Amino acid sequence: MINKNLVFLLPILVLLLNQVHVNAVAQDYVPRNIDIERSPKNILVGSYVGGRSHLKPMLDVATILIERGHNVILLTAGKYEPSSEYPGLKQITLGPKMTVKQVKMDIYKDFDYRTMVPFMEFTTAAYNVTYEKFKNAAKENNIDLFICDVLANKPCIDVANNLNKPVVGFTLSMQMMDPKPYNSDPMYGCNISLENESIFERFRCALIQPLKIAYAYGPLMCKLNDIRDQMNIKSVSGTVPKVSLALIDTFFGFELPQSLAPNVQEIGPVLSEEYPPLTPEFSDFINGHKRVLYVAFGTNFYASIENNNKILQSLVEAINNKMVDGVVWALSQTSKDDFSPTLSFTDGTQFAPQFAVLNHTNTKLFFSHGGAESTHESLYTGTPMLVLPFGGDQMGNAQKLIKSAGIALSINKNSLDVKDILNKIDFLLKDEHIKKNSKRMKYLARINSNRKYRAADLIEYMLYSSGLNEYLDDDFLKEWIPAESRMGFIKANNLDIYGVLLIIIPALIGIAFKLIKYTTSNSLSNRKKSKQA
Ligand SMILES: *[C@@H]1O[C@H](CO)[C@@H](O)[C@H](O)[C@H]1NC(C)=O
Ligand SMILES: *[C@@H]1O[C@H](CO)[C@@H](O)[C@H](O)[C@H]1NC(C)=O
Ligand SMILES: *[C@@H]1O[C@H](CO)[C@@H](O)[C@H](O)[C@H]1NC(C)=O
Ligand SMILES: *[C@@H]1O[C@H](CO)[C@@H](O)[C@H](O)[C@H]1NC(C)=O
CA 440, CA 37: separation in Å to the nearest integer? Predict the structure, then answer.
């Protein structure tokens, strides 16, 4: 029956659809008009730590805002030299740039939250001075919106909140802005995922480690709150920094999947539109070799002399064993003094155009420290990685590259072994899964690299919805704030309902028992009665 009807109706439907189509074609279409009314606004980009890895992604988004007519001011330690890449960017300095050495962090040791304590002490002591600098810059330049690097940058976020201006938190760390109970990070002494860990490990990571971290940072937080009280600064408490919008320079695929609140957006990998090309010398070298291994450990980190010698030995053997036919080692912090004096080594003062090297089809493997920028560039160019993490986010990045992205293997700086390095290089160059995943990640990183424009769109939306002062009350951006933040933990998770259930169920069981007792004793007494009768 139904089939018959359908057959009957179909021609009519087709006829109708054709009709619609013909009508549509007959008319001229007019554009939808996606223009947005714009007026120039003043934006402050602030980072306490500064440095390329923190500034570059923020400035790549800021560039889009500058192109759209806004004024952007960068406030950071030192002078950011590559800022010449960003025409139209005004720069104010927070003072001299600090270095890893200056803060007395021992980067040869295992690097986790404890290593960061001296650094946090340093930034807390400078809070008052930094706060004033941010406040003065904001007032002098009539700042409408703040984009604050989240790491060790409380003055930036506090000034914004105290001036009642919207603040965008910018970070590479999902765990910092939207922690989930089933995720962690080697920085906190645990694996990135607790999904398959034992209940003991989960107990340690969910309870013991946070307590240890609170113990390590508690006195500093108290000190900071004292300073805030003295300076009459409203402190905004919470487990994550209080920002209107969090932009996270990462992407699912590299990052472990999780749910996100609407005001937390993953927008990475943020990459520049243009990169410096290969110098003629590099170009000749890489064109002349079919399987090139590229080695670079970033600008802030360096290996011990012993490790450098092991790495060098591995590279020489990788060439001798014909795994690769060329090696480019970009030395920045590493100088020839970092190798044992018995080796002669030419100093690498020359700048390595990293993206262009990775972008070349002959570059088959990247031996890296696993810094965020290097990681993003490697994923984007589909280059597998051998990761030697030194500290900070690098251990977590290494785990994500291995487990989530599936394009890497890692080695441990405390137990470097030449044979192990060679086996891993061999595996990474040959394995089919690594090849497949590199291709997959290359695609994903490319489509996601467009999201820096979405980041700029969201920032502009905040500028225009906050331009009117009446929006700057409790309702500001309420379209992005899920109810759970207002309901509190217990109500948002229905814990009160489960609590009520916990009371109801024993009560019901109690009543049921009483009823059974009553009926059985009744029937017993009935039987007795009937017996007696
Ligand atoms: C900032 O605080 C430190 C102590 O934490 C103090 O020594 C210094 O004088 C303060 N600076 C200003 C400008 O208030
Ligand atoms: C993390 O996972 C690895 C295996 O992937 C395991 O060997 C290790 O014990 C786990 N825990 C920590 C704290 O690293
Ligand atoms: C945990 O184990 C399950 C089942 O073996 C697997 O599908 C999942 O990917 C694992 N998760 C992680 C984070 O390794
Ligand atoms: C990357 O490679 C593509 C072709 O493979 C080329 O068109 C592009 O210019 C390269 N970019 C850089 C920065 O090397």
Answer: 39
**Mean pLDDT along residues 220-235:** 92
For a substitution probing ligand 4, which of 282, 286, 359, 449 has the most ligand atoms within 8 Å of its CB? 359
Cα distances from 324 to residues 204, 356, 365, 428, in angstroms, run 43, 19, 9, 12
Q: Distance from the CA of 126 to the center of ligand 1, in angstroms? A: 7
Position 349 scores a pLDDT of: 43
Counting ligands in written order, the one closest to the CA of 198 is 2
pLDDT of residue 23: 53
Distance 274 CA to ligand 2 centre (A): 39
> At residue 247, does pLDDT exceed 90?
yes
- Give nearest CA residue, ligand 4 atom 3: 359
The whole model's pTM is what? Answer: 0.86
In terms of C-beta density within 10 A (0-12 exposed, 13-18 middle, 19 or more buried), how is residue 457 classed? middle
Does the CB atom of residue 356 touch ligand 4 within 6 A? yes
Q: What are the structural domain ranges in the chain?
A: 42-270+458-477, 280-448
Q: Which residue's CA is the closest to the ligand 2 atom numbered 7?
A: 191
Site to probe by mutation for ligand 2, drawn from 182, 184, 185, 191 as the one with most ligand atoms within 8 Å of Cβ, is 191
CA of 230 to the centre of ligand 1 (A): 11
Tokens 């409790």, residue located: 474
Within 10 angstroms of residue 73's Cβ, the number of other Cβ atoms is: 19
Ligand nearest to the CA of 194: 3
Q: Which residues line ligand 3 (CB under 6 A)?
A: 193, 195-196, 403
Name the residue with the closest Cα to ligand 4, atom 12.
356
Q: Is 473 helix (H, G, I), strand (E, B) or coil?
A: coil
CATH assignment of 280-448, among 3.40.50.2000, 1.10.4160.10, 3.40.50.300, 3.90.1310.10: 3.40.50.2000
Please indicate whether the domains covering 42-270+458-477 and 280-448 agree at the CATH topology level: yes
Average pLDDT score over the chain: 86
The helix or strand, by DSSP H or E, that contains position 264, with its residue range, turns out to be strand 264-266
The verdict on domain 42-270+458-477 having CATH code 3.40.50.2000 is yes
Q: Which residues of 407-435 are buried (b: 16+ CB within 10 A; e: fewer)?
A: bbbbbebeebebeebbebbeebbeeeebe
- Residues 428, 409 contacting (CB under 8 angstroms): yes
Amino acid 523: pLDDT: 75
11-61 confidence digits (pLDDT tens): 455 545 555 555 555 688 999 988 888 889 999 999 998 888 889 999 999
DSSP string, 23-60: HHHHSPP------------EEEEEESS-SHHHHHHHHH
Residue 51 region by backbone torsions, left for phi larger than 0, else alpha for psi between -120 and 50, else beta: left
User: Three-class SS of residue 88?
Assistant: coil
Region of 96 (left: φ > 0; alpha: ψ -120 to 50; beta: rest) is beta
Give residue 368 CA to ligand 3 midpoint distance, Å.
Answer: 26
Residue nearest to atom 7 of ligand 4 (CA): 359
